[in-house]
Amino acid sequence: MSENFTKGMARNIYYGGSVFFFLIFLALTFHTVKEMPKRDNRENITEAVANGKHLWEKNNCIGCHTLIGEGAYFAPELMNVYNRRGGEAGFKAFFNGWMKAQPLNIPGRRQMPQFNLTDQELDELAEFLKWTSELDANNWPPNIEG
Amino acid sequence: MNTLKYQSQAVAKPYFIFAMILFVGQILFGLLMGMQYVVGDFLGGLIPFNVARMVHTNLLIVWLLFGFMGAAYYMIPEESETELYSPKLAIALFWIFAAAGVLTILGYLLVPYSTLADITFNELWPTMGREFLEQPTITKIGIVVVALGFLFNIGMTILKGRKTAINMVMMTGLIGLAVFFLFAFYNPTNLALDKYFWWFVVHLWVEGVWELIMGAILAYILIKVTGVDREVIEKWLYVIIAMALISGILGTGHHFYWLMTPEYWQWVGSIFSALEPLPFFAMVLYAFNMVNRRRREHPNKAATLWALGTAVMAFLGAGVWGFLHTLSFVNYYTHGSQITAAHGHMAFYGAYAMIVMTIISYAMPKLRGIGEANCNKAQVVEMWGFWLMTVAMVFITLFLTGAGILQVWLQRIPESGEALSFMATQDKLEIFYWLREIAGVFFLLGLISYLSSFFITEKKAA
After folding, report:
1. Positive or negative CA dihedral for A121, A124, A126, A129?
2. How far apart are CA B35 and CA B251, in angstroms?
3. What is the 8-class DSSP label of residue A77?
């Protein structure tokens, strides 16, 4: 590097640049949070949806599945599982049966554990997944398979 | 033989040793998960995949934190030209952090996660069950307490001593690490907000403040092993971390493409994260440049190899593999696929696992009273470990990338109705997962070789 470019100049670029871009980041964050209600349907977060999110966390679902593409990559994406497995007409029945049938014990197949959730808990978890299926994540995922 | 400049640097030793023990655990659980990818029910009743993954990723984070703390305790007294403010506090915090870490991992392994949530009173302040932040809330509070005590100790040492660019950058990085961790306590019911601010911990750590820590450690090592003038090395350090933060802060946008966020993040994220490889490229130029211009032949060849290796592998893993899927129109199809896994593995190994092994390689011979460097035989075995682990990681990354490309092709690109389901796609990827597991076994062999080098000592001529 050139001798004319001193350590002091490099330091100033570091401090000045970081602060400047961090402030822009904060401003964009502020704007994003303000815009979010248009996309997250927060008016539909019922008590059941809130409990469902809590069950989602408490059973570490993210340890195998992804939710909007984030999580582990071992098991299917669940943001849109509501639409993939029956939607309004059939999802809840499917989900209740599916959760109760675990583990499937098919030799060699990836195993989902049995979480021993009550019918009410299963309903709340289903409500949470219904709510996530209605989120506007800029048109992600590309197709129904997630 | 005492080879430490400041006696209090010795507190780094248990941190480094414990980091290596946790590293072994991380790799064993990685191999278990690799098996479950191909033989789905392998030990599934005993250790379900979600538990193994939590152990694998949490062990990684914790051993890197132990490594960073050890690095700070080793470097800061020497940089500040004074003894550590309180060696006793450093040792006490070591035991607190180690105990909290072990108890948390045992909690993951011994009881169902929901039980762990109940017995740790997660209800009172729910923070569990989010990727990488699975720790019980009380463990998180423990982490904050340890971090505060650590920052106090390091900060007081710097205050009473010399303030170099290296210790200022290290300090800013560590403070940033602690500050951004506080977002782990924010877990709103609205998933949209939860996910957005979750990245304030995850991205602003690994693509932000951790790069400061990496840069500071690398600069310290380069000064020591090359003897190049501090002014030159510190100037480079500032340039590199300036590029890292200028690209990396708004680069956070590449995680906001597919959240409940405005579309402009697709532009902001693509443009700034496309610049994120630059600081890593500069790091490669700088490391090789400094080693070429060296003014001394340091006897610790292994430490020099690690320093060059971490620069190259961080550039490949974080820089190149990050760029591969960072543009929004690519990421639309690759988001949350095996491509993400490929990038994650090489980036963490290259940037963070390797920088910790760099400082360990340099510091351990001195901490153990051996001298400037281990004997030649030990260094040869250590370098075998370096090459086996690094080449194995290259192959793990390549196989996961292959799996990811095929996954995107089968599952993501076709229209609904024509796309293969997730599980059907996974069956098609089996060969890649087997190859990845074999590469993982070679990684373990490399780790064994690396660790065994610590037990090789020169036979004293009688």
Report:
1. negative
2. 34
3. B
**A67: part of which helix (H) or strand (E)?**
strand A66-67
Q: Which tokens is B284 given? A: 């490669």
Q: Which residues of A touch B129 (CB under 8 A)?
A: 56-62
pLDDT tens for each residue of A53-94 = 999 999 999 999 999 999 999 999 999 999 999 999 999 999
Q: How far is CA A19 from the centre of its chain?
A: 30
Task: Please give the ipTM for the structure prediction.
Answer: 0.97
Residue A87: its chain B contacts at CB < 8 A?
none
CA angle B214, B349, A62 (to 5 degrees): 110
Give the tens place of pLDDT for each residue, A15-38: 999 999 999 999 999 999 999 999
Helix runs in B227-337, H state only: 230-251, 264-274, 277-292, 301-314, 321-324, 328-334
Q: Which residues of A touch B250 (CB under 8 A)?
A: 21, 24-25, 28
B217-453: what CATH class?
mainly alpha
B positions 344-403 inside 8 Å of A (CB): none
Q: For residue A105, how many other CB atoms are within 10 A of its CB?
A: 11
